[in-house]
Give the backbone structure.
Amino acid sequence: MIRTERGFLRGGTDNIINRHGAHPPCRAPVTGYNQRVTDEPQPQTQPQRPSRPEPREVAELKQLKSDQPELASAVDMQLALIEMQRRVQSRVPLPWIQADAEWLRAQQEAGRPLVRFVDIPLDWTDFRLTLRQTADILRRHDALEPDDHDKILALAREGNALEPVVARWYAATSGVDASDRLATPPDDVPRGLDQVLVLALRPFLARCAEVLTARTDLQRSSHGRCPFCGWEPDFAVITASAERRLICGRCAAQWPFPPLTCPYCLNDDRARVTSFATRDGRYRVYACDVCRRYLKAYDGRHASRPVMVAVDLVATLPLDAAAMQRGYVG
């Protein structure tokens, strides 16, 4: 045994014992090589992409659902429709609409819309899918009867049967040609088809309105129906300059219209137009005492955001109830 300054050696340096009788901690041999690094190829970690911010309409709808839980079902359906329509519209090309200025002027003066059926950039495979998905969303939220849902899905699967039905329905509901005003929608289709077609065509018709808006003097429009697709307004917005703009319920286009004239019967007697608003002044109802119809509007004169029809239609559902209690219809 050899005595050292730190302890005793027993059988060589491998058995060093310190003066407390314990083995000192073992040290790995120094080789100049990082033991944690191996020769095996290491997986390359991809930098995480920042998540896309959700559209403001979606954020506003989610906030509305949180603030007013009683509207949760309507909000959920609207969120599903927005997601589907955005996805479809991103694939729809801008249409090439060939119409001379004289024809456009004549159509406007006659109160006839500018989008013909042949102008709509319909890919029929894509449209059938959109029609089925729209019907599924409405059925899932009890906005479409089961029997109508089944018939609409069957129609979408029937090869070439869908195209003439949609063409005839658009001709009858748009009146783009003078003779089409006398046409009637097909009577052998499901009752709920109107609602489904309006929503399914929106991504395609919105592209047409986008093209024609830049080529059309909408200040000349004095008709209550949409100057592009001929549908009725579904909502309105009061701008910061107190101008009222109607918003189409089918293609979402906007056009100016006198603030106290009924867009449905053109009654302009202010004494026979009833108007009432929400307590915060954000929303307003214009109700006609002649035809007994009403139109809701977003008052943007003191608002913190622009009009968002997908949000505002749901947020104003209580106004629908108030208007109907007074005997008006939408």
About this structure: The chain has nine helices and nine strands. The domain at 56-325 is CATH 3.90.1670.10 (FdhE-like fold). Confidence is low (pLDDT under 50) at residues 1-23, 25-33. The first helix runs from residue 56 to 67.
